[in-house]
Design a protein that fits this description.
By secondary structure, the chain is an alpha/beta fold. It contains eleven helices and eight strands. Helix 2 runs parallel beside helix 3.
């Protein structure tokens, strides 16, 4: 999945480039502080117009973000109820992206660090209503702890299909959350797999595995992600790296290699 955070005025060009290189899953958010969702929409429109893709080729994911995660460029009325804010943000996302439906709509993090509040419940119920309308195929949640995920799964009428977390090797690659996801048929999306793990990328064991497969270390990390049932995100701005990132489907790591990478957190 191609992640579009922190690209600002380069968003349209880079999303077009990613689509040209073969990416067919795009992640964004209606959070102008870190994303330029309208730029993603312009890229999609250009790619469709050029014949690079048709809409049905594309898996498109965006997010609702509570006000503390936003800057002054809000996609909703801050005085409105959370239900109305979700509805306004979603309508704005459809307009930004130039589409009639979203494949995955994600709660961009709970409203508090621990537990779930009434605001989270209200937001999720509003997202469920959008799902009921047929404008969204799947719901998800991001930046979530195991305790919060367990609680959301208990109270939700429509349980999350996706969890998107920053994935640190030094925290065992978020293993507890990943295991909950596997057990509950939730797809775990890992982001910052490279940028959050720079010391791990230099680990001699990882270097050996890369040499054995004649691949880059980055490719080994993404292949590891796939082998442990994780959907990796990449936000690279380099066309060659985009090709490399997509070139991980024609080999697999053996079980010993996966186990060694799982254990790298002990030395990170």
């Amino acid at each position: 999945m191609y992640g579009t955070a922190w690209k600002e005025d380069k968003t349209q060009r880079l999303v077009e480039l990613a689509l040209q290189q073969g990416f067919r899953a795009i992640d964004t958010a209606n959070q102008r502080r870190h994303y330029h969702e309208a730029g993603v929409g312009m890229a999609i429109a250009a790619a469709i117009a050029s014949g690079t893709i048709v809409r049905d080729d594309l898996f498109l994911q965006t997010k609702f973000t509570f006000q503390p995660g936003q800057d002054h460029r809000l996609p909703y009325d801050p005085k409105a109820s959370i239900t109305d804010q979700v509805q306004q943000s979603f309508a704005s996302s459809l307009e930004h992206l130039g589409v009639e439906r979203i494949d995955s709509y994600v709660l961009h993090g709970p409203s508090q660090r621990a537990g779930l509040s009434s605001l989270d419940r209200e937001a999720w119920q509003a997202m469920e209503a959008i799902h009921d309308s047929g404008q969204v195929r799947f719901l998800g949640v991001s930046n979530v702890s195991l305790e919060q995920l367990e609680k959301l799964s208990q109270i939700a009428r429509i349980r999350p299909s996706f969890v998107q977390n920053r994935c640190y090797a030094e925290r065992a690659w978020d293993r507890e959350v990943r295991e909950f996801c596997v057990a509950n048929q939730i797809v775990y999306q890992g982001f910052s797999l490279l940028t959050a793990n720079r010391s791990t990328l230099a680990d001699p064991e990882l270097q050996k595995i890369a040499k054995r497969h004649q691949r880059t270390v980055n490719q080994i990390v993404f292949r590891f992600a796939l082998d442990v049932q994780m959907l990796p995100l990449t936000g690279t701005t380099n066309a060659n790296h985009m090709k490399e990132d997509l070139g991980v489907f024609d080999f697999r790591l053996d079980s010993d290699e996966v186990e060694k990478i799982e254990g790298l957190h002990g030395r990170a």
